[in-house]
Amino acid sequence: MLLVTCPYCGPRPEIEFHCGGEAHIARPAEPAGLDDQAWSEFLFVRTNRKGVQAERWLHQHGCRRWFNALRDTASDRFLATYEMGAPRPSAGGEELR
Amino acid sequence: MRRFSFRTLISEAFKGHKGWERQWRAPEPKASYEVVIVGGGGHGLATAYYLAKEFGIRDVAVLEKGWIGGGNTGRNTTIIRSNYLYDESAALYDHAVKLWEGLSQDLNYNVMFSQRGVMMLAHNLHDVRSFRQHVYANRLNGVDNEWLTPEQAKEFCPPLNISRDARYPVMGAALQRRGGTARHDAVAWGYARAADAMGVDIIQNCEVTGIRRGADGAVEGVETSRGFIATKRVGVVAAGHTSVIMERAGVRMPLESFPLQALVSEPVKPVFPCVVMSNAVHAYISQSDKGELVIGAGTDQYVSYSQQGGLHIATHTLEAICEIFPQFSRMRMLRNWGGIVDVTPDRSPIIGKTPVPGLYVNCGWGTGGFKATPGSGHVFAHTLAKGEPHPVNAPFTLDRFRTGRLIDEAAAAAVAH
Amino acid sequence: MSQPFRLATGGRIDRGRRLSIRFNDATLEGFAGDTLASLLLANGRHLVGRSFKYHRPRGILSHGSEEPNALLSVDRGPGRRDPNNRATMVEAVDGLVTGSQNHWPSLELDAGEVNDLLSPVFVAGFYYKTFMWPRSFWEKLYEPRIRAAAGLGKAPETADPERYAHLHAHCEVLVVGAGPAGLAAALAASEGGGRVILADEQAEPGGSLLHETSALIDGMTAEAWRARALETLASRENVEILPRTTAFGYYNHNHVALLERLTDHLAEPPPHLPRERLWQVRARQVVLATGAHERPLVFADNDRPGIMLAESVRVFVNRYAVAPGRRIVFATTGASAYRAAADAKAAGLEVTLVDLRPEEDCGAGLQTLRALGCEVLTGHTVVGSQGRKRVSGLIVAPLGADGRVGARRTLPCDCVGMAGGWTPAVHLFSQSRGKLRFEPAIDAFVPGTSVQAERSVGAARGVYELSDVLADGHAAGADAAGRPSERAFAASPTPAGFTGIPLLPTDADPAKLRAFVDFQNDVTAKDIGLAVREGFESIEHVKRYTTTGMATDQGKSSNMNALGLVASILEKPVPAVGTTTFRPPYTPVSFGALAGQSRGALFDPVRTAPLDAWAEEHGAAFENVSLWRRAWYFPKPGEDMRAAVARECRAVREGVGIFDASTLGKIEVVGPDAAELMNRLYVNGWSKLAPGRCRYGLMLKEDGFVMDDGVVARLADDRFHVTTTTGGAARVLSHMEDYLQTEWPDLDVFLTSTTEQWAAIAVQGPKAREVIAPLVEGIAMDAESFPHMAVRLGRVCGVPCRLFRVSFTGELGYEINVPAGHAREVWEAVLEEGQRFGITPYGTETMHVLRAEKGFVIVGQETDGTVTPDDLGMGGMVSKIKPDFVGKRSLARPDIVAGGRRQLVGLLTEDAALILEEGAQVVADPDQPVPMRMLGYVTSSYWSEACGRGIALAMLADGRSLMGQRLHATTQEGFATVQVVEPVFVDAQGERIRA
């Protein structure tokens, strides 16, 4: 079970959280302007990176706030967690345990 | 290929088994192949086998990063069934079941396919409605599936708790008698041996590090840890690592890879005669020939390539097992492990062409790919050989995510597969 | 004579507490402090089981959790029998009933032994090569036979009456293993006051110190040092010592799982204690002091009862005061066996030692042992053993400098102690994903690079010298606690060097050699050779093909020998062959402990609505809807479900009914941008909905498919009362919050779940107004002032309420929302007021029938996650004005706008009395060949009391174009003819609802 550091509450066990998948995929401002291919990519295509990836987490059984995290999907280690809306930190940031 | 039989086994027994040959060669990769399969799991090896056997394409290499069958093929709970709701799925999985039924003889390798029956438990009115829908749809599709009362379910599987007082009492079950299990490792090895005998090169410890494309965008070959291999046709069958491989060809996929856990108990004498699946309480269980209770647990919630998940996934599964089979509470978990499953948005596989000429993909089997191994290999071989899909895999395109013609078994039935 | 092999003195057993156990048909005596293994040996019982495949007689190999052979069935009373218990780990308890396994008819005389005769056929992987013809025989004949022969013990047959507990803990430092390294680590780690947990799988902490009778530490006996260490630790409040506790799993982010066994060692466990407790520890730092396992030697017939590990002989002699034999031959490739031999000699046993190494390599122990009067043969290999159910002789031969095996000699004996070197227990380290490193000097894998906050110490990392072990433990403990310090210890030297050799040299025909590598799974060196010959070169392949290392001991004693064999056959260095993955658990863990208390009623919480108790008191039948328990129908005496539902339906259509709708999800959406958020989340428009009015809302996922629905009331410009489906409440709230927080944080809106706060009492039927009007204050109830789909705030029975005029039945109806604490008083007041109209409580089944008669859909029944608004005939509800809302773009995808989609219709059976099955498939031509073309399926089907016939809703391909057509729906017997009709069966004009 992962130990996830909520930027608002601090480290908590994974079962308090919901992982919402890849982060920084903004909903298009004008979906109607997208062709079917572009829209389907927004809906379904994911980087699914082996390595450091940014993803969304919700402290579901806690403060109920969404935040973003950098996690290495090969090792499951978190490199950083940060508030929704903040830019993605550089991957070399200090590792959070 | 030296045929396996009782007679050869006995004759070897007298000779100290010195006469057995390698089950597959360990060739050096050639400079080029007609077809390169990326991924030496059951699906990839089956693809190579059917390419050689059905389509006469023997100049084939199967490239495996580690050792064949070491991914999900050797990590799953080996459930085989075809009682899917949608016509497309039923056709695909039943195509596989039909091949399973003669597979040991076809490969001359005992894959121990055992049609012990797969029983899916209904625990609420929604399940009942859904399973009846499956039973009727299957009947009209020529797929066996029958409805059982709780008492009939208990008769079929005596350890089952059908008490009305259970938190989620068993309200009935859908039984596919042709469903069952097989010996997972043997499937990989059997396909490897049979494909090798027809000239397919199975190359282990060979990681694909790149897919080279020409000026026209078409595939020219693959870069590997053992050098460049030229080919005009590449079939990627890399399960959890599909996104990683495809990204090397510049193709982004509608996939996410999750850890999926399974576990076995210590072996005991026969106590569990069939396969039982309960989606409502999350339990999948059978007993192996060796005597271990083989139990499927769930996926972790986050993308991971670590083949290791959290303990809470296993404990949650065992809560369900103890709830449905109270006599197993004192059984002990012997091994718990994880695989990496690639999951599509509609939980159905993608088998077919990609936007890159010469690049084909077979992926997205999620938590249920093992059962499809022979069928998947067969239709993918057809697709690679002809450049066009077999009618059975024609609906399972990558393009369906653009058009919206999804095949959403999970949404339709709330049943994991 | 009782306990004929019990030594007269010594040991840690309590000679004052005699006990007896049953083993098969015998009653055997022992002492408190015995394990089953030591008790059996004290009684001269070496034959304790039969092997998995060949049913060979097997004895006790080891003294610890690595035991592969001595697996017993243990019966602790009704429902408390379980198989495969390692005799070396089960503490003897007075009255315990135990039995050996895997034999018929008896342990002594096992028909399964025929398999041993057939062993030339039953080689590794033989089953892959045969049993294929004729095809049908696999399932009918071969497989059942294989299954019956396989397995070990018998599974429990009845439910387990025990309780199991879960506990979560945090600590500064978790120390795994309370041997010398672990004790030193715990002492150092706990000095600073941070919480330290010290877990050890044995009944007593101390590890190897428990049988270390001769060594001195800092001038004290090992026992005195151990006692003082434990006393110090016990005196520190920040230390928790957990004996009988196995750390079995090392997961992400220093999450370590421990299993504590609480009652199995007690003859009469106190009832308040659970049997086992699962600890889930999140440790800041972990110290792994898990020790090392001794390797068996691989030689012909090395599996006879009486042949055990040399260190285990020492343990049985020193710790349990048991003589595993009177005449013991030690066979070794290393130094540690000399110590075991010396201790056995000191206990008065006859001892011979055979060392593979040439005389000059044998070290100081050689002379010491000879000085004690023991025969020592150096430069000798072992080529076989004699005896059947107990070893009677060990066959040895000199090994020439050229590697030639000389003349054989048989050493008579009744016990063999074999020492093939040491394998650090790196299991937990490996589970933590640390990378192993091969250390040629000790022929073993040791922890290399750490990945998590842990460190291995002592024998677990190949440090065997006792003084070094203690210093290592101290330094690691201090460092883990963040207070680095070093300390030197003075201790007696520890002989530990060895020559690693996976198969002892022999002159026998390798094809006939029965030299066991994996004892439990009956894997021989020959099997491993065969696997490699057949191309299984990766160690994982060898493991799977031969099953070596896959038994219940997970290869603790066998893995290194198997690996060494593969490496030597392939002529590769060991690290090039690789090492197998160590998977949790370290030792098997009961399902019960893992499941914990989540059983029965606690398996999943039961959510009950405020009126659940009333329903129960009034005889309701219940159904589960997600976590909720809901009243399904209210049968009167003598009524079956159909009669009850028919009565309830009549009451609502003709008079008035009352229904607990409290489980519906409720979300308060508040803020200046509330309407904008609603506009973006629902297909309908909300800007023009006036305060005081309600609207049916439909919500899509971004993929365009229906996600949820419900009536939404606008209470004020900036306030909506949103309802959701019962099962969808949490999902909908999360969906809303997700968009609000992540996509549109600029919107000024607050979302609050109020599902549990509001009870919702539905009063439905032509008399509904007359029933509730007298109870309502402050709300004009006439139809004009309070029309259908309106909401009013006021009081009912003096309680503040939100009164909705809404209907899911098609009748005049209200839903009275009151604070949940007032639900029952209001419900009972309405009931009383309704008496004069025969007010009838109804359940979810009647609610379903009534809504189906009106063609109202239920999300999750008519929809399945692949249905669009248009499919439901609700295309007109989708706003054409809004440029965007969640799911809108997806509705324009090619296959969503294409023809052939399934659409909601009604079906009437030709036979009015017939009720179709929900899930029945519909076809145009029932005589077509299989596979048939299915048009769709029945989503809802009921007996309609109002129509006097069966009615059904269905989703059919292009269903709206099929109106009036005759189609065919499946039944259990075949097909029934149905007619496609509009999906509304009662009051198509909707006059009653607006009454």
UniProtKB/TrEMBL annotation, chain A:
InterPro entries: SoxD (IPR006279), SoxD_sf (IPR038561). GO terms for molecular function: sarcosine oxidase activity. It comes from the Bacteria. GO terms for biological process: tetrahydrofolate metabolic process. This is Sarcosine oxidase subunit delta. The lineage of its organism: Bacteria, Pseudomonadati, Pseudomonadota, Alphaproteobacteria, Geminicoccales.
Automatic annotation (TrEMBL), chain B:
Its main location: cytoplasm. Its EC number is 1.5.3.24. PROSITE patterns: RHODANESE_3. One of its GO terms (molecular function) is nucleotide binding. Its cofactor is FAD; FMN. It comes from the Bacteria. GO terms for biological process: tetrahydrofolate metabolic process. It is found in: Cytoplasm. NCBIfam families: soxB. This is Sarcosine oxidase subunit beta.
From TrEMBL, chain C:
The keyword Oxidoreductase applies. Gene3D superfamilies: 2Fe-2S iron-sulphur cluster binding domain, sarcosine oxidase, alpha subunit, N-terminal domain, BFD-like [2Fe-2S]-binding domain, FAD/NAD(P)-binding domain, Probable tRNA modification gtpase trme, domain 1. Residues 514-596 form the SoxA A3 domain. GO terms for biological process: tetrahydrofolate metabolic process. It comes from the Bacteria. InterPro entries: 2Fe-2S-bd_N (IPR042204), BFD-like_2Fe2S-bd_dom_sf (IPR041854), FAD/NAD-bd_sf (IPR036188), FAD/NAD-binding_dom (IPR023753), GcvT/YgfZ/DmdA (IPR028896), GcvT/YgfZ_C (IPR029043), GcvT_C (IPR013977), GCVT_N (IPR006222). Residues 613-880 form the GCVT N-terminal domain. It holds the Pfam family GCV_T. The keyword Oxidoreductase applies. Residues 902-987 form the Aminomethyltransferase C-terminal domain. Transmembrane segments: none annotated. Residues 172-432 form the FAD/NAD(P)-binding domain. GO terms for molecular function: sarcosine oxidase activity. Keywords: Oxidoreductase. Belongs to the GcvT family. NCBIfam families: soxA. This is Sarcosine oxidase subunit alpha family protein. It comes from Marinimicrococcus flavescens.
